[in-house]
Amino acid sequence: MPALLKNRNFRMLAASAAISAVLPLFAACSDKPAAPPQQTPEVGVVTVNPTGVPVTVELPGRVSAHLVAEVRARVDGIVLKRAFTEGSEVKAGQTLYKIDPAPYIASLNSAKATLAKAQASLASTHAEAERYKVLVAANAISKQDYDNAVASEGQAAADVASGKAAVDTAQINLGYTDVTSPISGRIGKSSVTEGAYVQSSAATLLATVQQLDPVYVDLTQSSLVGLKLRRDAQEGRLKTSGPNAAKVTLILEDGRPYGGTGKLEFSDVTVDQTTGSVTVRALFDNAQRVLLPGMYVRAKIEEGVNEQAFVVPQQGVTHDQKGDPTAFVVGADGKVVTRQLVTSGTYGANWVVESGLQTGDRVIVQGVDKVRPGMTVKTVAAQLPNTDANTQTAAAPASDAHSAQ
Known about the structure:
six-stranded antiparallel β-barrel; conserved putative lor/sdh protein from methanococcus maripaludis s2 fold; 4 domains; elongated
């Protein structure tokens, strides 16, 4: 019995020693510093407000000459001479070709001779009618003889008039042997050579003269786009100053802008039933002859100003799985919400937002990748690069942003 008690006491002492050794370890663990609380992410925002944004439409088009004159033969004959250099500038009235005038000189001389004969006959019949007038009054001749004399005088007068018309026609035809340019402009290649036979009945094409300064640019606009613009103007969202004041700029085939702006002339009132489009014509100066007829260009037309548009830096607009534009907006409680946007294009480095935002909304443009809807964030004014004065005016950083806890 005493041995049993001795063993029991020994086990109790050993357990007590083990507990004493473990307690300092627990105390050491409890002395470790606690993990710091999660910090509220900081994001850069801009406060959006309605601003005036030019409404621009980009349209495809073709260049066409301001004036086009096809020089054609107006008389038959052999081309004796070409009096111009192909591709050169010609003036209105300048002689381009010389057609053999000999047959027409002969026709003119014949017409003049016929006229002279008719004039002589008229003088004779007039004198005879005057004599018969005296004789019929004295009953020396019959009334019928006098009437015949008057009729002969009238016929002779008609022959004179016909002769004069024949002379005029012969002179006109002779004049047509000198083929002149009807307009000033640049002449293309000659369609005939010296020695070629041309015909007025076939209206033989000799050359084409085109006025290249100024030039027209004929653009194709969707009737749907035109309808939207007119509706926006009627509802006051779009301000226009008249079609004659609309600015038009061109982008050439190589992607470079064309120097200078054009003037919008008119928009056709008929919609093409096959394409659903209307033609818009603009007028451009072309002193350097950069624009040539038939050239493909793209035109940007400033059709007005949208005074109620919102502009958001491009880095602040993302797209969902459907491809629709969205933006993260910080609410009054400091939490992030997602807004579905409707955009109408770009303006500088910004997206133009038609709907989805309200005046005073704070849109996240920096730190977009580290926030989620419903998250509480701390807002600061976004630091945007000063790339364009218009961009900074349209999307000024939010200077009154505050911390949302």
